[in-house]
Amino acid sequence: MIKEYKTIREIVGPLLMVDGVEGIKYEELVEIEMQNGEIRRGRVLEVNGDKAMVQLFEGSSGINLKDSKVRFLAKPLTLSVSEDMIGRVFDGMGKPKDGGPDLIPEDKLDINGIAINPVARDYPSEFIQTGVSAIDGLNTLVRGQKLPIFSGSGLPHANLAAQIARQAKVLGTDDKFAVVFGAIGITFEEAQYFIDDFKKTGAIDRSVLFMNLANDPAIERISTPRMALTCAEYLAFEKGMHVLVILTDLTNYCEALREISAARREVPGRRGYPGYLYTDLSTLYERAGKIKGRPGSITQVPILTMPEDDKTHPIPDLTGYITEGQIILSRALYKKNMMPPIDVLPSLSRLKDKGIGDGKTREDHADTMNQLFAAYAAGKEAKELQVILGESALSESDKAFARFADAFENIYVSQGYTTNRTIEETLNIGWDLLKILPRTELKRIKDKYIEKYLPEESQVD
């Protein structure tokens, strides 16, 4: 039942306190009718006895405490969903912003969703090909996984996000694949880049875009990722599609949480972020996965910029605890003009072993992955030694590893943002690079694979 009150007691930033309420529920949708008839929306953030705290989605300027009316609508914030959402662009509150018609919804879903029952979860084990060698070959993305990208201010994570959205696909299946892209607090220029790129490459035909811009209300940022994930859940578990969800930039989401927490006068946690930041982030990340007996899946690639490139900052730190690994972009590689500047050594995909091998990628994938990783690490050490002691202090083996490290960065990692490599191409490039090393150094690959993929006559010492 809709209830209306004219008992606004206080307004602090995006928060509004209403007295004398009864029967009000947490997360209930609210309408504020101003004295001039303008309607603004919000939601119930807290209920304490006969007092309700309302979080406004728009600004609070112009609201008159005496004459404004508050209506509690007895329902949560919902998203109208339909398969016709694919190919459309929406704002952070789920309203069309591409000039197209309003949707005729098949259903209206609560954006807060319901956590997947752990017993009903299916274990992620199917390979997703992104076309990016540093991910596919060394930090493999698996269907149903949460694999964040840790970036820094000014690094080209937008280009990498667009590339993954454009190129990602599940191999060996005819199941429908969709991309849900949620942009949180990004600039107009960035938003236009994504929209133009998706339209130019045709990726828009299988994508749903939710765009929350930097000049939109900070409160809207809290809803945008939940709108995107609700759309993904509908497409995955109601329509049986494989959905890749890309969220950028989660740092802006956390800043909005901090802003609201400060307005609520809550006791701050680390770096001023609310103490429940971990719990709040988990309500987003844990909406990825597969459900037993259902054909669809949700795979998440959240992107966040680490303030001051600090991996110990609360946002990347807590994200690392919840998700299954991370892809880290390197400022040093970016300065060397590597595109994309993925630093494979600190990057990690905890589920990569489950999504590779015979029948999924190729029989030699695990061995070559381990050998490339070890060789690149040895090459980096050799180059550091060379800087300190000079090239003459290196053994022939060390020099080979140093040459390998340079070639690995220039050929394997730096592939550009338009090159779409199949997993076979990625593995073959890996074998070509291993020719730089003496055969005796290939200690992590079974002899039968060396004989099959690196015969004697092709070996270069």
Explain what this protein looks like in three dimensions.
With 461 residues, the protein is α/β, with parallel strands linked by helices. The protein folds into three domains: 73 residues, Elongation Factor Tu (Ef-tu), domain 3, CATH 2.40.30.20; 277 residues, Rossmann fold (3-Layer(aba) Sandwich); 95 residues, Bovine Mitochondrial F1-ATPase, ATP Synthase Beta Chain, Chain D, domain3. The chain is 32% helix and 23% strand. The protein contains twelve helices and 22 strands. Helix 9 crosses helix 11 and helix 10 runs antiparallel to helix 11. The longest helix has 25 residues. The protein is elongated and about 85 Å long.
How is this structure best summarized?
The chain is α/β, with parallel strands linked by helices. Helix content is 32%, strand content 23%. β19 and β20 form a beta hairpin.
How far is the first residue's CA from the last residue's CA?
79 Å
**Unreliable stretches covering 5 or more consecutive residues:** none
Number of strand elements: 22
Tell me, what's the shape?
Answer: elongated
Kindly name the structural category: alpha/beta
Radius of gyration: 25 Å
Total of domains: 3
The CATH architecture classification of the largest domain is 3-Layer(aba) Sandwich
Average residue-wise pLDDT: 91
Annotation field: number of helices = 12
Strand content: 15-25%
Per CATH, what is the topology of the largest domain? Rossmann fold
The CATH class label of the largest domain is Alpha Beta
Q: Tell me roughly what share of residues is in helical segments.
A: 25-40%
The major sheet is characterized as:
10 strands, mixed
